[in-house]
Amino acid sequence: MSAEQTQRPIRCLVAKVGLDGHDRGAHVIARAFRDAGFEVVYSGLHRSPDEVVQAAVQEDVDVLGISILSGAHNTLVPKILDGLDEYGALDDTLVIVGGIVPDKDEDELRERGVSAIFGPGASMDDTIEFVRENAPKRE
Amino acid sequence: MSGLLDRLLDGDHRALARAITKIENRMPGHRELVSSLYDHTGNAEVIGITGSPGAGKSTLVDKVAEHYRSQGLTVGVIAIDPSSPFTGGAVLGDRIRMASNVGDMDVFFRSMSARGSLGGVSIATADAVKALDAFGKDRIIVETVGAGQNEIDIVKTADTVTVLVQPGSGDDVQMLKAGILEIADVFVVNKADLDGADRTVQELNEMLQLRDDDGGRSSTGHHAGHHAESAEAVALQRTEAENGWMPPIVEAVATRGEGVEEYVDALDDHRAHLEATGELEAKARARYAEEIRTLLREDTAELLTEEIAAHGGIEELVAGVTAGETDPYEIADSVLAPIADCARQQRDS
Predict the structure, then answer these.
(1) What angle do CA A119, A10, A81 make, to 5 degrees?
(2) Chain A residues whose beta carbon lies within 8 Å of the beta carbon of residue B26
(3) Cross-referenced Pfam families, in alphabetical order (chain B) (predicted)?
C-alpha cells in the first residue's frame, strides 16, 4: 500500500456543549475545517458532556473542538476531559476550546488537558495551522 | 494488532472505533484485521437505508435504533456523507439527529465520508459492518444519500434495503424508476402527515404494480415489452417475482416516531422471507463473490502501479503516445504481458 493511500484526513468533532444556543462560531469553524480538507463531525446544539465523549470515542476523532459561549466552561470542559480519560482517549485526542474564556480560567483548563483556547479575534488560519501541527500522529 | 482484535471482541468501544478507522483508511494491517474478523461475523442483521437528502434518513435511523434498544438489542450505525471532491474535506452531520440514544454506548454510531477520489468506500463500509458484527451488535444500519452508483453499492452490503421517500418529491420518484427501485425491499414514505403523501404512496404502488406485471409477463414468455430494460434487471425482477416478495410501503412520521413499529415489522418480515426462501444465503454468496473481485481489482491495480513505475512512469508512457510512437493499447499489452506469462507459468507448474 502506497503512502498516499494510507494518508488520512484529520478527523475532528466540533461540539456545542451545555445550554448555549450560539452556534454561528461552530458552523464557521466546521466549514473552515472542511475547506482545509478535514473531516468534521458536527454534534449539533445542546449536547451534554457524556454525549460529546460518546461521539468523540465512537467517531475516533483526532481533534475535539469544544465551542462554548455560556461561561460554564469550568464545569463542562473538565467533565468531558474526565470522560475521555475514562475511555483512554484523552492522551491521543487534541482538545481545543473556542469561545469566551476569561484569562484567569485558561491556565486551569490547560492544566486539565486542553491544548489551546481560541477566543474572539482568533484567526482561522492560525487555528487550522495549529490543528495541522498538533493533531496526534497515529499508526 | 492482535491486541486490537482481542479488545474489540472483548467489547472495548474504543478498540472498535480504532478498528473502523484502520479499515476506513486502509491502514497497514487492516487486511489481517478484517480477515481475522470473519470468524466472528454472521450474527447481525444488516439494514441499508437510502433516500434523497432531507428525506429524514437520520431521524428514522435514530428512532429505529431507539426501538431496537427497547427490545434489548444492541445497534451499530454507519452513516455515510459525501465529501468535497476538491479538498477531500467533509462535514458529517448525521449525528445531529441521534437524539434518542443519548449517552447509550450500546448504540454505536459512526460517521464516514464517501471519500470520492479514493473510491473503495463500499468495501470499507462492508468491512466496517464486519467490525460491528464481530463486536456483537445485533442490528447494523447503514445510512447513505441515494444519489449514485456508489451509494447503491453501499446499500447492497445490507440484507434488507430501505428506500425513503418524502411526499411531493415527484422527481425523486422519477429517479427511483431509473435506478433504486430494483434494490428496495421496503419503502418508507416519511413525513406522511404532509400534503401529497397519499399521492406518493399511490405512485409507488403503481410503479410496483407495473414492475410486478412485467415480472409476470417475462416469466410466461412474452418478452416483447422489454425493449428498454436490461436482461439483468429483468432477471432480477423475475427471481423476486418468483420468490414472491412485494416491497411493502410504510407510511411514517419519523420525527414523532409514528410508523416506526410498522417499519421494524416490515424489516422482520423481509428477514423471515430471506431465510425461508434461501435468499439470505444467496445474497451472502453474491456479496462474497463481489468482495473477492473487488479485493483482486484493488490488489492488481496496485501491482500494475508498480509495473508502470518500472516502465519509467506514466508520464513517459504518455510521452510515447503523444510522440506517435505507440498507443495506449500497445502499452497496456506490453506492461501486462510479463505478468500474465508469469501467472500462467506458476499455474501450470
Answers:
(1) 55
(2) 1, 5-6
(3) MeaB (PF03308)
Residue type, B16: L
Q: What's at B193, amino acid-wise?
A: D
Minimal CA–CA distance to B288: which of B41, B20, B28?
B41
**Which of B14, B26, B95 is closest, CB to CB, to A1?**
B26
> Nearest residue on chain B to A53, judged by CA atoms?
B103
Domains of chain A: 10-133 (3.40.50.280)
Interface ipTM above 0.90:
no
Rounded Cα distance between B77 and B105, Å, is: 12
Q: Report pLDDT digits (tens) over B219-245.
A: 433 333 444 444 444 445 445 545 678
Q: Any long-range contacts for A130-135 (C-beta under 8 Å, 24+ apart)?
A: A130/A96, A131/A10, A131/A12, A131/A33, A131/A36, A131/A38, A131/A63, A131/A94, A131/A96, A132/A10, A132/A36, A134/A94, A135/A10, A135/A62, A135/A63, A135/A94
Cβ–Cβ under 8 Å, residues A78 and A18: no
Give the C-alpha separation, B206 to B249, whole Å. 12
Of B14, B18, B25, which has the smallest distance from its Cβ to A8's Cβ?
B25
As a whole number of angstroms, the distance between CA B144 and CA B157 comes to 12
- Each residue's pLDDT tens digit, B300-337: 888 898 999 998 999 999 999 999 999 999 999 999 99
User: Is the four-CA dihedral B6, B7, B8, B9 of positive or negative sign?
Assistant: positive
Cβ B88–A37 below 8 Å, yes or no? Answer: yes
